[in-house]
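Project outcomes to date are best conveyed with an example. Our students and postdoctoral researchers have been running inverse folding experiments weekly, and each run begins with a structure described purely in C-alpha cells. The record below, which covers 220 residues, was selected by the lab manager from last quarter's runs and is presented without edits.
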C-alpha cells in the first residue's frame, strides 16, 4: 500500500508539472496562425486569378461580338437576303430597296438561329483563338454560343440579311487551388462538376451587336 501511494503521488506530481510546462505552446500557436495565413494567401491568389479572367474575358467578348458582326455566320441556316412578307392582294407590294422598318410585312422575319462554337467554322475558330487565352485552361470552343436575331430596323427588302448577333460564353468552370473554392461553390448554390475538385461556375457573359453588311464578299 505504501508503495502504491508513493506511485500515485509521483503521477500527480508529473501531471502537475506537465500542466505548468508551456514549452510547446508557441509551436501550437504558430501552426494555427500559419494555417490561417496560408488559407488567406492562397485565397487572395485565387480571387485575383478569377478577377483577371473576368476582366480580360469581358473585354475580349466585346471584340468577339464585333468580329462576329462583320464575318460570315458561325451558324448554318441563315437566309442570304430579305424576302417580301405577306402582301395584301389589294395593295401594291413594297419595292425592292424598301427599308424593312417601313412596315410590318415589308420583309419576312427569319427565325432566330442559334448554335455552339464549332472548330470547323472559320468565324467561330477566329473568335475562339481570341478569347481562349483569357479563360480557364479547361475551356473549349463548345463553350461559345452564337445567336442571330431578326431586327426590323436593320436591312432592306432584297438586301443581304443583317441580324443582331449575340456571342455568349456558357458552362465554364474556374478551379480554385485553396479550400475557399468549396465555400465559394456552396455560396453560389451550384455544385462543382465531378472531377474538378473545388470549382465554381465562371459568370456567363454575352454581348450583342447589330450585324453589318460591308459588301466585301464572304470574307467580311
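After processing, the design step wrote out the following sequence:
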Amino acid at each position: 500500500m505504501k508503495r502504491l501511494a508513493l506511485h500515485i503521488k509521483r503521477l500527480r506530481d508529473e501531471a502537475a508539472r506537465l500542466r505548468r510546462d508551456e514549452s510547446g505552446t508557441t509551436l501550437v500557436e504558430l501552426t494555427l496562425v500559419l494555417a490561417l495565413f496560408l488559407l488567406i494567401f492562397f485565397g487572395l491568389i485565387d480571387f485575383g486569378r478569377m478577377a483577371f479572367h473576368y476582366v480580360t474575358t469581358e473585354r475580349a467578348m466585346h471584340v468577339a461580338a464585333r468580329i462576329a458582326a462583320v464575318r460570315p455566320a458561325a451558324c448554318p441556316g441563315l437566309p442570304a437576303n430579305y424576302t417580301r412578307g405577306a402582301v395584301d392582294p389589294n395593295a401594291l407590294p413594297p419595292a425592292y430597296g424598301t427599308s424593312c422598318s417601313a412596315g410590318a410585312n415589308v420583309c419576312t422575319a427569319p427565325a432566330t438561329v442559334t448554335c455552339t462554337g464549332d472548330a470547323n467554322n472559320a468565324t467561330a475558330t477566329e473568335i475562339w483563338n481570341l478569347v481562349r487565352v483569357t479563360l480557364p485552361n479547361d475551356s473549349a470552343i463548345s463553350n461559345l454560343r452564337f445567336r442571330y436575331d431578326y431586327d426590323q430596323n436593320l436591312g432592306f427588302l432584297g438586301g443581304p440579311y443583317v441580324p443582331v448577333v449575340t456571342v455568349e460564353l456558357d458552362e465554364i468552370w474556374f478551379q480554385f487551388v485553396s479550400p475557399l473554392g468549396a465555400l465559394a461553390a456552396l455560396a453560389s448554390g451550384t455544385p462543382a462538376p465531378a472531377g474538378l475538385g473545388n470549382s465554381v461556375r465562371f459568370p456567363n457573359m454575352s454581348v450583342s451587336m447589330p450585324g453589318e453588311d460591308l459588301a466585301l464578299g464572304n470574307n467580311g
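Residues 45 and 110 are 48 Å apart (CA to CA). The two ends are 104 Å apart (CA to CA). The training component of this project remains on track.
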